[in-house]
Every structure is written in C-alpha cells, then in structure tokens.
Amino acid sequence: MFAVFACILLMVRGSVEWAVSSEQASEVAEVAQDVAYTESMMLANGMYMGDDLGQRDRFFFYVFDKAGNLQNYSRASEQLEHSILEVINNGQVPIGDVSMVELKDSKNKKAVLLLTSTDIILNHTAVGTVFVGKDVTAFYKGIKKSTYFMAGISMIALIIAAFIGYSLSGKVISPMEEAYERQRQFAADASHELRTPLAVVMASADMLQSDPSITSPICKQVIDDLKDEVKKMTKLVGDLLTVARSDGNAEKLVVTEFSISETFQQIIRNMQAIAEQKNITLTGNIPDDMVYRGDQQKISQLIMIFVDNAIKYTPKGGEVSVNLQEKKGKKNLLTFSVSDTGIGIAKEDQEKIFGRFYRVDKARSRSMGGNGLGLAIAMGIINSHHGKVYVDSVLEKGTTFTIELKNL
Ligand code: ATP
Ligand code: MG
C-alpha cells in the first residue's frame, strides 16, 4: 500500500513539475527572442531601445558578439554569476532549446536555472549571441516542500483511515466473536451435562444385565443393544466436549516428562483385544526407555486415535504396526507412525479427514461407530505440541500416518 502511495505521490510531483517547468521554459525562450530582437534593433539603429527585463523577476541575460566580447547584460545575482558564465563558456547552453542546469553558487548552495541562447541576426547574418536564463531555485524548493507537505497530509489521512477501519471492523467482529463464544460454551456445557445421565443409564443397564431374575433372551438382547448405544453416545459426548474445550483454549496442557516407550507399550497391549476380535495382527516397534516432555494424557489419546482408526479401517486379517522412531538427528522431535493394510484414503480426502465430522464413506464409517471427530481432536493435540502429521495412503492397500511432535 505504501509503495502505491509513494508512486502516486511521485507521479503527482512529476506532472506538476513538468507542467510548471514547461510553462517557464517557454517564457525563457520568449525572453531570449525579445532580447535578441532588441539587440539587433539597437545595432541597426545605433540606439538603445531598452528592454523590460527590469520588470521580469529572476531573469538575466548576457550578449556576446561574434568575437566573444561581452556587449550587453542584465546581470544574474552576484553569487551565481561566476558559475553561469562558466556554463556559457563551456558551451553547455543549447541554441533555440531551453535546458535545465543545476549548479552551485559561490556559497556552495544548489541552484536550478533554465538557460537558453539565440543568435542576433542583422541583415541575415548572425552578429552575436544572447544567453538568457532564469533562476527557478525557489520554484523547485517550493515543489519539493509541497510534495513533503502532501506526503505528510496523506500519511495522516492514511493513518486515520486505517484507525477508523480497524475500530469499525472491531465493532463488527466482536458481536460475531461473542456469538461464537456463546455457541462454543453451550456445546461444552451441554456435552458436560449429558455425561452424568449417560453414566447413570450405563450403570443401570449394567445392573439389569447382572440381575438373575431377567431371563428372557429378548430382554437380554435389548439390554445389550442399549449398552452399545450408550457407549457410542458417551464417546460422542466426550469427543464433543474435547472439541468445544479446545476451541476456547480452556484446556490447559499438563506438561510432564514421562516414558513415552511405556505409553506406547501400554496402548498396544490394551488395543490387542480389539485387534484380535477382527483377526488383525497388531505389532509394535518401540525402543525402550525413551522419554518425552508433553501432556501425557493427551499424547495417549493421540496415539489411541490413530491406532483405533487403523484397526477400524482395516478389514479382517489385516496388519497394523506402530513404530516409534529412535531419536536421531533432530533431538527435540518425537516421531512415530501408524501403518495399516486397510482400505486407504483417496488423495482428495487426505486433507479433509482432519476436519470435524468428516468421514470418507459416511455409511460405512457410521456402521463402524465413527463420528468423524477423532482426527480433528488429534490435530488439536498435534498443534498444541507444535507438531506435524503426514499421510501416505494408497486406496485398498493401506495407510501410514507419520506424526512429529516437539518436546515442550
Ligand atoms: P471417530 O474417530 O470420531 O470415532 P471416525 O473414525 O470416522 O470417527 P476420524 O478418526 O476423524 O473419524 O477419521 C475421519 C475419516 O478418515 C474416517 O471416517 C475414515 O473415513 C478416514 N480414515 C481415518 N483413518 C483412516 C485409516 N487408517 N484408513 C482409512 N481411512 C481412514
Ligand atoms: Mg476415528
């Protein structure tokens, strides 16, 4: 924005300078003609006709005959005269054209002059030369000052405009922020409140299940189904609560140094039962005694999300492997990957799966009990540990998620 502003300013200054200086140049040329005419009349009549240069501000002229002797003049200011005569003697003043010359006066101050020359013609022969000039230093200084002034005013205007824009946008955005915050708070409160009744329903179902007086197979089936549904609901409510809390940054990380090797081994042990149900081989490649600094509970949740997905989206008889990399070059990084031989994820879906409620195959995922929140929660945890996640997947072949986390 400032570059555009500077360009406009330079263009304005350039065009003003050009307009005014071309006006002045034609004036100088006119005066040169006048002086030449007066000189030729004087020579022809042997009398002095006089000229009106006295009334013309800042003009000066010098008349030389063909031999180079000074014949007549209207002097420039004392400080400038020496430099002007030097320029004339050096032949730097064009005939017929007006040129702009910058020179230093005797006090070493910069001066800007418009200079031209014309021949004095008598009976069709050139008998001498008139050099006419005008001191336009003040005019240039004026333009310079006015440019600075314009720049100053525009800068102030720009700052005021930016300030007004900022405060107005704040006025528009803050109600939106408030509405968003209320909605987030509502989701957090609602899911929190739902947890207790769900726990009560679950406990009641457990009680019914263990009641020996209930013998009807239909009743037993209903209780089993009820428990399944309540489990799904509890997971959804828990996930929603996590997402709503992480939005509001309400969840503070509890950072400790812990054995990440043990965390991995424990998760693999716990997930083994679920993998076996699907006849999936779950293997871990976990180096011993590795420690990590971060939120232990969140990191466990993160690993679980990936292992859970790998098992969920791998058909029966497949393989899932969890690999924790030894610390090599990058000491501050913890790298692990979860690979499966499952259904794979299409290229176009690989970024989207980290969005909330996004499931590639909605019908299939739902039947597997997914809500599409797992990877969104994982992303939140990865971000809070300044990490990155990479997906490498081929449809119907399998997927590898690689996760890098920084020590906090
Ligand atoms: P939730 O984890 O909330 O129970 P979900 O598993 O459907 O439900 P995400 O874990 O966020 O949700 O995963 C989003 C989608 O990404 C999944 O529905 C699935 O389509 C796809 N996906 C995730 N992991 C894999 C994987 N290992 N192989 C194939 N597809 C996957
Ligand atoms: Mg999942």
Short synopsis of the structure:
The chain has 3 domains: 2-135, LuxQ periplasmic domain, N-terminal subdomain (Beta-Lactamase), CATH 3.30.450.220; 146-247, Signal transduction histidine kinase, dimerisation/phosphotransfer (DHp) domain (Helix Hairpins, Orthogonal Bundle), CATH 1.10.287.130; 255-406, Heat Shock Protein 90, CATH 3.30.565. The protein contains 8 helices and 12 strands.
Structural commentary:
This protein has 408 residues and is of the alpha+beta class. It folds into 3 domains: 2-135, LuxQ periplasmic domain, N-terminal subdomain (Beta-Lactamase, 2-Layer Sandwich); 146-247, Helix Hairpins (Orthogonal Bundle), CATH 1.10.287.130; 255-406, Histidine kinase-like ATPase, C-terminal domain (Heat Shock Protein 90, 2-Layer Sandwich), CATH 3.30.565.10. Helices cover 52% and strands 21% of the residues. The protein has 8 helices and 12 strands. The chain has helices at 2-45, 78-89, 137-209, 217-247, 260-277, 296-312, 362-367, 374-384, and strands spanning 59-65, 70-74, 99-104, 110-122, 125-135, 255-259, 281-285, 291-295, 319-324, 333-340, 388-394, 398-406. The strands form 3 sheets. Strands 2-1-5-4-3 form a 5-stranded antiparallel beta sheet. The chain has a 5-stranded mixed beta sheet with strand order 7-9-10-12-11, with helices on one face. It is rod-shaped and about 145 Å long. The protein binds adenosine-5'-triphosphate and magnesium ion (MG). Magnesium ion binds next to helix 6.
